[in-house]
Design goal:
Blueprint: H1 2-15, H2 22-35, H3 37-51, H4 54-76, H5 93-114, H6 116-124, H7 128-135, H8 139-150, H9 154-173, H10 179-197
Helix pairs in contact: 1-8, 2-10, 3-4, 3-10, 4-5, 4-10, 5-6, 5-7, 5-8, 7-8, 9-10
């Protein structure tokens, strides 16, 4: 019960307004990646294989993203990343798949409507997987918590979203190989942002 009250208070506080240092967040994300570069790059081979296909991206993307979050958390705690950690996110596959499907449908509907609503939803739900993975929230509640959190400074999270999208585009343009580095970097940066705004449960 204490954890639920705590996370609700954190989200309420964030929704009333927060400031995120873009430079610091990017630096923290880079430092996390630097603590286990080989492990992150190797795992990204699986990540690219999953996200390069729309079907597997929707069905398996959630557990893969949770694995990235788990690895970033281990790196932040100076803990060694084992091969088994690559598949850690699949321990909550049911909830994460439901969450991914729900986000996909809402964002797709938003894009069909007028594009801008789709972008709004994509940015608003950027922290949803963290609430499922670290705080055991149900998909619908995780989406609500993420939207409320981001509403505290939507423009700044949108800027972060666009910066990471640009970085990953450059990674793809670098013969496609660069994405193996930019993808884990992006997840580490989003982890750093969430940790700064809400905090990560141990």
């Amino acid at each position: 019960m204490e954890l639920i009250i705590d996370i609700e208070n954190q989200v309420k506080e964030a929704s009333s307004g927060f400031r995120l240092s873009m430079e610091s967040t990017l630096q923290v994300g880079f430092n996390l990646l630097r603590k286990a570069p080989a492990e992150f790059i190797i795992f990204s081979v699986l990540g690219v294989a999953v996200f390069s296909n729309p079907v597997t991206g929707v069905l398996l993307g959630g557990p893969v993203m949770a694995s990235y979050m788990h690895m970033a958390h281990l790196a932040s705690k100076e803990q060694k990343i084992e091969m088994s950690d690559f598949f850690k996110g699949f321990e909550k596959a049911g909830s994460l798949i439901k969450l991914n499907l729900l986000i996909f449908l809402v964002v797709l509907l938003g894009l069909i409507m007028l594009v801008i609503p789709g972008i709004y939803f994509a940015v608003s739900y950027i922290f949803s997987h963290f609430f499922v993975w670290f705080y055991d929230k149900e998909p619908s509640e995780a989406i609500s918590l993420s939207r409320r959190t981001v509403s505290g400074n939507f423009k700044q999270i949108l800027l972060l979203f666009l910066i990471l999208a640009g970085i990953n585009l450059l990674g793809i343009m670098a013969l496609g190989v660069g994405i193996l580095l930019t993808m884990p970097f992006s997840f580490c940066v989003v982890y750093a942002a969430f940790d700064d705004i809400i905090g990560i449960s141990n």
